[in-house]
Write a structure and sequence with these properties.
Layout (H helix, E strand, L loop, with lengths): L1 H19 L4 E3 L2 E5 L3 E5 L5 E10 L3 E11 L5 E12 L15 E4 L2 E11 L9 H11 L7 E10 L6 E10 L7 H4 L9 H15 L1 E4 L4
């Protein structure tokens, strides 16, 4: 009986490991996904791969993220590439994504919702969030985030039910603008300059990310 129980425990551990192990393959600056969706994502060769994480986000979504950075010799992050595959778990059929950004962009034939924002380092992070996971991963590899970053979020919904998504977040150090996140946010002293800065960072994000659809016709 004890032997049977031990075998059952080992089986459960093995199944849990299979569930949480990242599925997508990374080779240098390329991610290959064979499902949800079947694509190849290529980013600049200058990136360093930080690593991957997979978990059940807030107990409702299977989330797999991959992190790349461009950093200086002191491991200060200058650019961030946050690539995330996510889908609500089958036991929550009531849940659907509700993105409503009026801005869209097409990359590799896929339609993406587009959002932007600025964020100071040390801003409050929700416990258990994907942001917490990626920041923990970055710190664990010895990288340091800059004082402030500007971000472009690109979200592609895979299905009509809006239950699965591909999310790509591109971030840049704000140092190049010589402005802070507080100055650039809505209501900040330099908010009037954000529209032009935002336009440029969106264009850079689009140029740095290449997507190839590998699904069989």
């Amino acid at each position: 009986m004890l032997q049977q129980i031990a075998v059952l425990i080992l089986l459960c551990i093995s199944l849990a490991a299979q569930t949480t192990a990242p599925e997508r393959k990374v080779q240098k600056n390329v991610i290959t996904s064979v499902r949800d969706p079947s694509i190849r994502i290529q980013i600049p060769e200058s990136v360093q791969y930080v690593g991957a994480d997979r978990w059940i986000l807030y107990g409702i979504a299977d989330c797999e993220l991959h992190t790349f950075v461009e950093a200086d010799a002191q491991r200060n992050v200058q650019r961030l590439y946050w690539i995330q595959f996510e889908g609500y778990i089958p036991t929550r059929p009531d849940l659907h994504h509700t993105y409503d950004s009026p801005r869209h962009s097409a990359i590799g034939g896929l339609d993406f919702y587009v959002d932007t924002w600025v964020r100071p380092n040390g801003a409050a992070t929700e416990p258990g969030s994907d942001r917490e996971h990626i920041e923990t991963l970055i710190r664990s590899k010895g990288y340091k985030m800059p004082a402030g970053m500007m971000y472009v979020r690109l979200v592609h919904l895979l299905d009509e039910q809006k239950r699965k998504e591909l999310m790509i977040i591109y971030g840049e150090d704000l140092a190049s603008t010589r402005l802070t996140a507080a100055e650039l946010k809505e209501g900040g002293s330099a908010y009037g300059r954000w529209a032009a800065i935002e336009k440029d960072v969106i264009e850079r994000a689009q140029k740095k990310i290449a997507i190839t659809n590998t699904a069989k016709p």
